Amino acid sequence: MTASKPQPRPCSIADALSVVGDKYTLLVLRETLFGVHRFDAIARNTGAPRDILTARLRKLVEAGVLEKVPYQDRPVRHEYRPTPAGRELQPVLLLLKEWGDRHLAETPPLVWEHDCGADVEAQICCRACGEELRRGSATPHYQVPGWSLSGPVEA
Amino acid sequence: MTASKPQPRPCSIADALSVVGDKYTLLVLRETLFGVHRFDAIARNTGAPRDILTARLRKLVEAGVLEKVPYQDRPVRHEYRPTPAGRELQPVLLLLKEWGDRHLAETPPLVWEHDCGADVEAQICCRACGEELRRGSATPHYQVPGWSLSGPVEA
DNA sequence: CATGAGGGTTTGGTTTTCCTACCCACTGGC
DNA sequence: GCCAGTGGGTAGGAAAACCAAACCCTCATG
């Protein structure tokens, strides 16, 4: 009577994707980070159908990624602004953009010029020591009993 | 007779998500980067239904993110390994993991210990100058006529 | 020859998504 | 007042995606 359904791996990536992994969700966030905060403009720029956009915005507000801010009364209208948690996803978007630039686009539609003068190219570093993080320079520790990197293990 | 449907913003993030934005896709990639390369194990660890997994694997192979490598004849069996392009997505997963750790999980299921001794926490830097990338330290340049950061513009 | 593992495909039913249209509150022009 | 226009949604039905379970095929081993 045990183990009716094996659970998938406990994982923060999966948790994060349960919030931002739906279609259009990261594009909606992109718009708010670009400074586009209104329903109609977000719908136009992402291509999301209006009812889907309504659902995504509601979920993102509930998850604390966006907040709904009134910008006028009579009639009350709201705009959607990223919370600090939402802004923390900006690096994810930056890396996805760069990956798309490298592997899918002929000409990158958008380029950022850093204050140092170069076009922005991101590098992932260890916050503690400043070294670039590379494959094999860190060792994983699974904190969940019954699991290892390769899969479930016996107790 | 022009402009029947407005196109969404041309964007490499959207392009990237058209490849890796489907449900389970990034979890499948996670498994292959963890060293789990076989169909059954990937299905178990991600929770993806088998037919969906078949579709995702095929798409990822076509997109050049994974490759199908035979590991035995009689019967021929294949495993799925990340290509260089697939490994380039590892930072995206790392950032999603950290975001999930910070905002959704009580205890991070998985921690990486960097060679320097600290638990890994990623920092995004400018590859050219080494400075941490922060909000406002770069200016965008849209390369597509008819578009700006805030939306479509007149020609 | 039965059993079992690996790697799928098929079937059939349930959700999601998508699309078009409509609604409501208000404003500004006439 | 009447009309069109804007912002932010709902409603309803068709299309696509998803899911669980069952099935299939190839080979290996006992």
Corresponding CATH architecture of the largest domain in chain A: Orthogonal Bundle
Mean pLDDT across residues of chain A:
90
Largest interface summary: A-B, 86 and 87 residues
The helix count of chain A comes to 6
Oligomerization state:
homodimer
* Percentage of residues in strands of chain A: 15-25%
Please state the CA-atom Rg of chain A, rounded to the nearest Å.
20 Å
CATH homologous superfamily descriptor of the largest domain in chain A: Winged helix-like DNA-binding domain superfamily/Winged helix DNA-binding domain
Number of domains of chain A: 2
**What string gives the helices and strands of chain A in order?**
HHHHEEHHEEEEE
Tell how many strands the DSSP assignment of chain A holds.
7
How far is the first residue's CA from the last residue's CA of chain A?
18 Å
Residue stretches of chain A low in confidence (pLDDT < 50, at least 5 long) are none
Strand order of the largest sheet of chain A: 1-2
Topology:
The structure is a homodimer of 155-residue chains.
Chain A: H1 12-20, H2 25-34, H3 39-46, H4 50-62, E1 66-72, E2 77-82, H5 84-87, H6 90-103, E3 110-114, E4 122-126, E5 138-142, E6 147-148, E7 151-152
Antiparallel strand pairs in A: 1-2, 6-7
Helix pairs in contact in A: 2-3
Chain B binds a DNA duplex (30 and 30 nucleotides) through helix 4.
Structure characterization notes:
The structure is a homodimer of 155-residue chains. Chain A is an alpha+beta fold. Chain A folds into two domains: 12-88, Winged helix-like DNA-binding domain superfamily/Winged helix DNA-binding domain (Arc Repressor Mutant, subunit A), CATH 1.10.10; 90-135, no CATH class. In chain A, 37% of the residues lie in helices and 21% in strands. Chain A contains six helices and seven strands, in the order ααααββααβββββ. Chain A has helices at residues 12-20, 25-34, 39-46, 50-62, 84-87, 90-103; strands at 66-72, 77-82, 110-114, 122-126, 138-142, 147-148, 151-152. Chain A has a two-stranded antiparallel sheet with strand order 1-2. Chain A has a two-stranded antiparallel sheet with strand order 6-7. Chain A is globular, with a radius of gyration of 20 Å. The structure holds a DNA duplex (30 and 30 nucleotides).
